[in-house]
Amino acid sequence: MRPVIFLGTSGNLEVPLRICQLRNIPVAGIVDSDYYGNTDKKNDVEIIGSEHSFDFDAARDQFDFFVGQSSNTQYQRSRKKRLDYISIINRHNLNCATLIHPGSEIYNNVEIGPGCLIGFCAGISHHVTIGAHSRLDSFSMISHDVEIGDNCYIHSYSMISSSTTVKDNVVIMPGAAILRTGKNHTVVGNDAIIYPKVTVARDVEPGEIVSLAGGNTRRIYGEVIRL
Description:
This protein is α/β, with parallel strands linked by helices. It contains three helices and 24 strands.
């Protein structure tokens, strides 16, 4: 594989870096305006440019790219910056690395889009489609006949049952579960957020935040950031 350039960084950049190490994928550096000109390295990786000035067209044929910026649900700036990096990838038609931990389990008939990350001990059953720039953290489990959209973040110890569609920009936090409802299919709408350890057995509306309050599942509608 070609050397990888990370677009943005975060505290959990160590996870994709570890996968690169295990897969013998060279890392060329980080492009991030927050650090370029202020520090030489982040996560022991060289800062090589800013997204505002880096020559992506010149680098397109030499490197693969991976969005290292977090989609932290607590910080709208982090979420927006991640979407901005994805826009840069689309605008410049950049090739993206898909990072799959060798300790994950992936069945047949699985389609994984560009720029995805599959973590340690993640399990993906058959007939699953995962869109571009989505992430499945360690010990997350995806059952059969599931469709996951673009830029989704499935945190550790989460589970998605069979016959479920998860739309774009969805965050499923640690220990949450999406269960199949009585009908044929369960749908989680665009930009939804499922809070930790919440079990959802119904459709989730676009932009909905599902959390626990006083022991009851409730809905909160907040600001939505889209490409």
